[in-house]
Write a structure and sequence with these properties.
With about 140 residues, the chain is mostly helical. It has 7 helices and no strands.
Length: about 140
């Protein structure tokens, strides 16, 4: 686990949205492929999100949707490299199952079907689609 943590940190610290060439062999050996690496980043993101979600829900916000949007954006400020990696690779097949599962769990935990509109308003420097907006677009259950 320690080695996995070090590799995730090293790749994200590179600022790239792919694995740097000098780490490719180690990442492949540890995660199997780029998809396995992305799944690890995704798991870390959702663990951090869910840990903060508990605190948000304990406060019983009047507007759960806005609270979730703030939570997502605050976490993106805390974990910008992970968010950049996930957003840049949002269409990768390795992320679909985890995104779908988390979308369903988020809906079950909040009782709210979220609208993507507030999440698409991003600073001009960051026009790539936000993963949460992609998830929420398909949130119908």
């Amino acid at each position: 686990m320690h080695r996995r943590h070090q590799l995730v940190h090293a790749v994200l610290a590179s600022g790239l949205t792919t694995v740097p060439a000098d780490l490719a062999a180690e990442v492949a050996a540890e995660f199997g492929d780029f998809g396995g690496f992305l799944q690890e980043v995704q798991r870390r993101w959702y663990r951090a999100f869910d840990a903060r979600l508990d605190a948000v829900l304990e406060e019983r916000p009047q507007d759960v949707h806005d609270a979730l949007v703030r939570l997502w954006r605050d976490l993106a400020l805390t974990m910008p490299a992970a968010r950049l990696m996930l957003d840049a690779n949002a269409g990768h097949s390795a992320l679909v199952e985890g995104d779908d599962r988390h979308r369903r769990l988020l809906h079950a935990a909040t009782g709210v079907v979220l609208s993507p509109a507030p999440l698409t308003e991003q600073p001009a420097a960051r026009r790539k689609p936000c993963l949460l907006s992609l998830l929420l677009r398909t949130s119908t259950t």
